[in-house]
């Protein structure tokens, strides 16, 4: 059996696709399995990062091997994903805290001002 | 003059780079269009971002990105194991308060994003005076250890990078 470079490439591509698919599946499964909103947030913010990452790496290898122009779109998708995933999670968490959680359920802050969604920022700029 | 034209030189550079990556073909026309965009976008968004972010040691950024990428892979495996195998009533979720030494808004944003992307933690909120972060931890028996790890592993590096 000859191990030419194309075969190795195809094995790599399939491996990354399977790994990515598995993590994406686990992330979605976590949504069903975990108990409350804050716990559920953990599954999609992480498992899907590697899930999509695996698929993107597979795509890069595939187009790199097939001799066409190397595509950089995958890199961009990764960057945009890393920028947007934490923001979405943060907004969902904040919305959840506003509607479902009292300030007394949270641990106190370390400073003299409370958490941002329950309190206004300090009027005195020296406290910022 | 140059400062008026390019209020955020790093942002301008990023925009040219991202534009070239988006069109996926480096030609003179595309480069010119990218440079044009790198004028317009920072100029239009400047009112929302009056202070320039300063990077003290930009090279440390690469180390930071490498550490975070590695942690993301570890985080994925850890969270996957918790989701798949841990009985529901054994998952001990807790709130953790992380006091901040960082002061620049950009640095705090990067730290908050990093916390969300890495092992079992999601940033939920900032305190009103930007003095600490509220972090939700998926599973931990020792909230103090989580806090110390965040401070040591990420905040210390960001402090060197930004201040």
From TrEMBL, chain A:
InterPro entries: PhaG_MnhG_YufB
Transmembrane segments: 12-32, 44-63, 75-93
UniProt cross-references to Pfam families, sorted A to Z: PhaG_MnhG_YufB (PF03334)
Keyword annotations of the record: Membrane, Transmembrane, Transmembrane helix
GO MF annotation terms: sodium:proton antiporter activity
Protein name as annotated: Na+/H+ antiporter subunit G
From TrEMBL, chain B:
Subcellular location(s) of the protein: Cell membrane
PANTHER family in UniProt: NA(+)/H(+) ANTIPORTER SUBUNIT E1, NA(+)_H(+) ANTIPORTER SUBUNIT E1
InterPro entries for this protein: Cation_antiport_E (IPR002758)
This protein's UniProt keywords: Cell membrane, Membrane, Transmembrane, Transmembrane helix
Entry protein name: Na+/H+ antiporter subunit E
Membrane topology per record: Multi-pass membrane protein
Transmembrane segments: 6-23, 30-49, 61-85
């Amino acid at each position: 059996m000859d191990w030419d470079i194309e075969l190795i490439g195809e094995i790599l591509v399939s491996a990354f696709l399977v790994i990515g698919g598995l993590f994406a599946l686990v992330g979605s499964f976590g949504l069903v399995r975990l108990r409350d909103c804050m716990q559920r947030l953990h599954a999609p913010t992480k498992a899907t990062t590697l899930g999509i990452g695996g698929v993107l790496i597979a795509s890069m290898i595939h187009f790199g091997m097939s001799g066409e122009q190397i595509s950089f779109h995958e890199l961009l998708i990764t960057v945009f994903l890393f920028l947007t995933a934490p923001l979405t999670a943060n907004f969902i968490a904040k919305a959840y805290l506003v509607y479902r959680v009292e300030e007394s359920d949270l641990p106190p802050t370390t400073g003299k001002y409370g958490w941002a969604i329950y309190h206004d920022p300090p009027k005195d700029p020296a406290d910022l | 003059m140059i400062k008026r034209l390019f209020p955020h030189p790093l942002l301008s550079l990023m925009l040219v780079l991202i534009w070239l990556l988006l069109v996926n073909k480096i030609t003179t026309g595309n480069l010119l269009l990218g440079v044009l965009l790198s004028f317009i976008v920072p100029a239009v968004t400047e009112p929302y971002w009056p202070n320039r972010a300063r990077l003290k040691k930009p090279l440390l950024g690469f180390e930071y990105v490498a550490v975070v990428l590695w942690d993301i892979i570890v985080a994925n495996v850890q969270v996957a194991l918790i989701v798949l195998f841990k009985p529901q009533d054994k998952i001990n979720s807790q709130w953790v308060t992380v006091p901040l030494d960082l002061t620049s808004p950009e640095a705090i944003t990067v730290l908050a994003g990093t916390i969300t992307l890495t092992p079992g933690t999601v940033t939920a909120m900032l305190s009103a005076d930007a003095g600490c972060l509220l972090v939700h931890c998926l599973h931990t028996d020792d909230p103090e250890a989580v806090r110390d790890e965040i401070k040591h592993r990420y905040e210390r590096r960001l402090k060197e990078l930004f201040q």
